[in-house]
Design a protein that fits this description.
Elements: H1 2-18, H2 26-42, H3 49-60, H4 70-74, H5 80-92, H6 96-118, H7 122-140, H8 142-159, H9 163-174, H10 184-189, H11 196-212, H12 216-224, H13 226-238, H14 245-265, H15 278-297, H16 302-306, H17 310-328, H18 331-350, E1 356-357, E2 362-363, H19 381-389
Antiparallel strand pairs: 1-2
Helix pairs in contact: 1-2, 1-7, 2-6, 5-6, 6-7, 6-8, 7-17, 8-9, 11-15, 12-13, 14-15, 14-17, 15-17
């Protein structure tokens, strides 16, 4: 119920502030909605099996800050900033709930700031973030989400031409999660020093290269070595299931939708309702399509890399939606268009959650639903089975 009530609230404020010129209470709802999302994530209890691994690691293996050694930062399979944050939080309050709250604050503050600075329709962006990525980002991939947060700050500085700060936050991202190195492709694709033709050829070459080589996972592992290689092998093992027909249709829909919007925006000098340079967002959209193709044809765990692009695609699609209804839809029908969009996005993202997983003997959504908080400390038997099946707790 908590998820649905929050979604309804975010839907209402997106209608009030993004469909009208009303400004009263706008700042309050921006702050309140951010606090609300922080609390839902921060006070959760045994939701998302991956976070149970972090809970176990926090309690059993994380040293206090004054016990931390150099080897703890260099030998661990985790990156140094993640270890430092765990250690610092455990030293201040030896309770994983406090750590959850700190992580939720960093993630949501960065995302809210990202949308507010770059979009004039940021409540709609926040609403779709909640539907598309909130639960997964906040409750499952906590460590990677911190890296994503650093990447968002990096782009905000990059958009303002503050390149030193952009590089600094990109380095911070890598120190939280090694996969953030792939985010560096964005800076290749958005570079002013490379022509658009070169970028398009590079994208095509990347796809063909992945198709031709027999084992891209082994090649990438050999190139980077160390912990990155082992992480690639690990993700390849857990995410190597073949894509079914629905999976292909699901990914094809994303490709067509983003490609269509990129085509519509190709002659725009400035993207509507956005405060980000066109070359940045357009090239991120192109790279997003390339990575989906690579994910489908060759590398299953590329889905993890796509996490770094999700929020940019929300910016792009929300921008096109408002531009379309303002130019093509009569005023009396614009709200109906928004309802249709919400239904489409909801179904598109909820449908995969309904898939029955035979190994778990339940549907996928049981990882996150029903919601329980630290105040009630209730547990869901089916989720507890998933946690045991995946060996998340030790």
């Amino acid at each position: 119920m908590e998820y649905f009530l929050t979604a309804f609230y975010l839907f209402i404020i997106s209608c009030i502030y993004d469909f009208s010129k009303i400004k009263k209470g706008k700042k309050f709802h921006y702050v309140f909605s951010c606090i609300l999302l922080i609390c839902i994530s921060g006070f959760r209890y045994r939701i998302a099996p991956d976070s149970i691994t972090y809970l176990s690691d926090f309690n059993a293996r994380t040293p206090l800050i004054y016990e931390l050694s150099f080897s703890d930062l260099t030998i661990s399979r985790y990156q140094p900033f993640w270890i430092l944050l765990n250690s610092l939080c455990k030293t201040v309050v030896s309770d994983f709930v406090f750590f959850q709250i700190i992580v939720a604050i960093i993630i949501n503050l960065s995302i809210f700031k990202f949308f507010k600075e770059l979009s004039n329709k940021y409540f709609t962006c926040i609403f779709f973030y909640f539907i598309v990525a909130y639960i997964y980002f906040n409750m499952e991939i906590m460590r990677e989400s911190l890296a994503i947060s650093m990447c968002l700050f990096s782009i905000l500085f990059y958009n303002k031409k503050k390149y030193k700060k952009a590089v600094l936050f990109f380095m911070f991202a890598f120190l939280f999660h090694s996969f953030s190195m792939f985010f560096g492709l964005i800076y290749v694709f958005t570079s002013r020093f490379l022509s658009q033709n070169f970028k398009n050829i590079f994208a095509l070459f990347l796809i063909l290269f992945i198709l031709i080589i027999k084992d891209p996972i082994l090649l990438i592992g050999n190139l980077f070595g160390g912990s990155i290689s082992s992480n690639l092998a690990y993700y390849n093992t857990i995410e190597s299931k073949e894509i079914g027909l629905l999976g292909y249709l699901y990914n094809l829909t994303k490709i067509i939708l983003v490609a269509f919007v990129l085509y519509k925006f190709k002659n725009y000098k400035v993207l509507p309702f956005l405060n980000i340079e066109k070359r940045i967002l357009i090239n991120i959209g192109i790279l997003y399509i390339v990575l989906i193709i690579v994910r489908v044809v060759s590398i299953p765990y590329m889905e993890r890399i796509l996490n770094y692009f999700t929020l940019f695609i929300i910016l792009l699609l929300v921008s096109y939606f408002y531009e379309y209804i303002n130019k093509k839809v009569a005023k009396g029908l614009r709200f109906n268009s928004y309802i249709l969009l919400v239904v489409f996005v909801f179904i598109f993202n909820i449908f995969p959650m309904l898939k029955y997983i035979p190994e778990w003997r339940t549907e996928y959504y049981r990882r996150y639903y029903p919601y329980y908080s630290v105040f009630s400390k209730e547990t869901d038997p089916e989720r507890e089975f998933i946690i045991r099946y995946e060996g998340k707790e030790f």
